[in-house]
Amino acid sequence: MxxxxxxxxxxxxxxxxxxxxxxxxxxxxxxxxxxxxxGIDGQIEVVNEDKEGSGRLIAVQLKTGQxxxxxxxxxxxxxxxxxxxxxxxxxxxLPVIVVLCDDRIDVCYWVEVSRSNVKKTxxxxxxxxxxxxxxxxxxINNLKAIAGAPAHHDIVELALFKFMGDKHHAHSATGRLDxxxxxxxxxxxxxFSYLGRFEVTNELVFISHYYDIYKDFDESIIYxxxxxxxxxxxxxxxxxxxxxxxxxxxxEDKENLKSYKKIVEDVGPLENVEIYRLLYKYDPLGVVSxxxxxDLTELDEGNNEIYLY
Length: 309
Hints:
This protein is α+β, with helices and mostly antiparallel strands. It contains six helices and 15 strands. It has helices at 6-26, 83-90, 140-147, 152-167, 219-235, 254-267, and strands at residues 29-32, 42-47, 53-64, 76-81, 96-102, 107-112, 119-120, 125-130, 177-179, 194-198, 204-211, 244-251, 273-284, 292-299, 305-306. The longest helix has 21 residues, at 6-26. It starts with 5 loop residues before the first helix and ends with a strand.
């Protein structure tokens, strides 16, 4: 006969507790995700003051029971996860929170999974889930701020635009680097992040950016972009001149960027190619999740950060 296991019962109790707290404490909506669970157990939707659905969502990974609370500190609970879930959550279109449910006292603790608070371990990563952050009315503003934040991949692109504007400004040797608007891109423009042109020299620039949250950077990326440059040049019937290729390698890990420097050196000099290693930094300016500062900082040959151009 099928058995109703303790594990199954505990998981259902946690879902019931979370759903009740979202309704009672926040007056919001919790929707359980019953099928194809790839690391998301449900969604919380913010409901506005007029009791209208806002369309602002938070994805939830829920863990219930004492086994998830055993790594307790004075500040909170250490949650340990695997890398596949981390990559999935960081690239999710919704902000993701991990919720730890203490089914003995009907309390749910939460933390947003972000690049700033995750720490790598030998076998994966961990994050501190603060005791002060519970699914309660006191946390409404913090949870609202998370639901209204831009997606992670959008943040990286915005930070890259800022970096390119800081480096290639109106008073630089090249002038501004103007990015081609989507509507003006050639129909067969293929494979690159952006197409740009330097204001002063009028030089065409193929721009590619690579963020290593997907996988480790390797030299195949460089050769792929070289082939794409050739393909686009030939398909547009452009001049035989080799147009500039700018490749931005982005990571939040300085050690990764140091190893990528070795990969670039092994490839050797390439005609009209500039490769930048950019350190992704996230600095919280306050306790509310919306109060953030995102930045990309170029590293020099010695892996030191460059701040002025």
